[in-house]
Amino acid sequence: MYYAYKYRLKPSDAHREELDRHRDICRQLYNHTLYRLNEYQDEHDELPSMTTLRSELPDLKKWWDGLSDVYSKVLQTVVERLFDNLKGLSKLKENGYGVGQLTWKPPREFRSFTYSQSGFKLDKKGGQTVLSLSKLADIPIRLHRAIPDNAKLKQVTVKKEPTGEWFATFGVEMDREPPEPPENPEKCVGIDVGILKYAHDTDGTTVGSLDLSDERERLEREQRKLSRKQHGSNNYEKQRRRVAECHADLRRKRRDFLHKLSNYYAREYDLVAVEDLNVKGMMESPSNSRNTASAAWRTFLSLLEYKCEREGTHFVAVNPRGTTKECASCGVSTEKPLWVREHSCPACGFEADRDANAAWNILSRGLEDVGVGHSERTPVETALPAHTPVSAKRVVEAGSPTLKERTASAVSE
Ligand SMILES: [Zn+2]
Asked: Which family is annotated (predicted)?
């Protein structure tokens, strides 16, 4: 299993200068390799292999001052990157997309470089954890969560965000295979994702939506300021950074919330049932707010799916048809417009919150899908749990909607 761990670097001004210098040498090498690729193609009427271009690196160093300042494996990954981009391009072409050539990279578009296999390690210097990069520097790093002991660090990519911040992303391999999901899952949960509440589950936990109105307001304010600056001026550039920071802040907060919520469900339960949004999306008429919401749900579900796989938890995406209309107790369907928040069954008298009823239907479909015989098909037989409303803020702060979270061993995203 391969994971990515991302951390913020805390470079000094001197570090920043060096990072930028290395980044720019890599960028120039990328552009040079692209030039060589085209030149070779003109001469030989075919593309050179990656090995051919990589083998030119030692000769290049003879006349290119500064190239030897960069760790040699880093230079090799620059050549590999060009070939990766080339592959991506030809795949798009195969699929009938009209795409042009690979283009020369200006500084703003070349933000990262990669140490692969060697030349980097995490170290302690003067009581501070540092990322030690060969031929570059020991850069302080904020390890806000630990990399598990059984993880092998395969590579690290250092990247400068448009905000000017530097991050390090480790590619990590775990020697442990993910555990098999249990044959008889005991702790099972159905989750209904919704508009008014972010999630409502069969254990009675309802999680509110993340309130990012302050962040959004700030973004709009900074964007308005940007529109008043003269394009290309120093002030414009400064303001552009501020806008980028706002975007990054929003993105970070949203993802952080989704990571924590999905971590919680994947770790706390043996089986997690949700609605298949690919089917749901086709059934519902598109509107802008819905699209935005469903994009966030999709992210949540894809995070949830891979975390479930990692934790050995069943992940079931069920057919969403009629989950709100159907009575979770007797199965009779009744029309229910969106504003009706309560489920009250005319056939059997079962009453529940609209989303709770849907969550129960999702769970029982999920149990059927994995073929688990479940005696407690109906929520009536089990006592309905009382609602526990939880704000999204609490999920972000506590890392979970409840306090009884299992102590998780592996911490990763
Ligand atoms: Zn009923």
From this structure: In the C-terminal section; belongs to the transposase 35 family.
Report the chain (413 residues): mean pLDDT per 10 consecutive residues. Answer: 87 97 96 92 90 94 94 96 87 69 86 96 92 97 82 94 94 81 90 84 88 92 94 91 92 90 93 81 50 74 90 92 90 86 89 91 90 58 62 78 46 37
**Measured in angstroms, how far is the CA atom of residue 274 from the centroid of ligand 1?**
21
For residue 361, how far is its CA from the centre of ligand 1 (angstroms)? 12
Domain annotation covers residue 181: no
pTM: 0.63
Cα 363 to ligand 1 centroid, rounded to whole Å: 16
Domain assignment present for 179: no
Return the SS3 of 334: coil
Q: Is residue 183 part of a domain?
A: no
Residue 237 exposure: Cα atoms within 13 Å on the Cβ side:
5
The alpha carbon of 195 and the centre of ligand 1 are apart by a number of angstroms equal to 24
Which range of residues forms the domain containing residue 24? 2-174
How far, in Å, CA of 148 to CA of 402, rounded?
24
- Could you tell me if 193 and 265 lie in one domain? yes
Task: Take residue 50 and report the two structure tokens written for it.
Answer: 């990656």
Q: Give the count of domains, the chain.
A: 2
Q: Which helix (H) or strand (E) holds 247?
A: helix 234-268
Give 326 Cα–ligand 1 centroid separation in angstroms.
Answer: 8
Q: How many A from CA of 370 to the centre of ligand 1?
A: 24
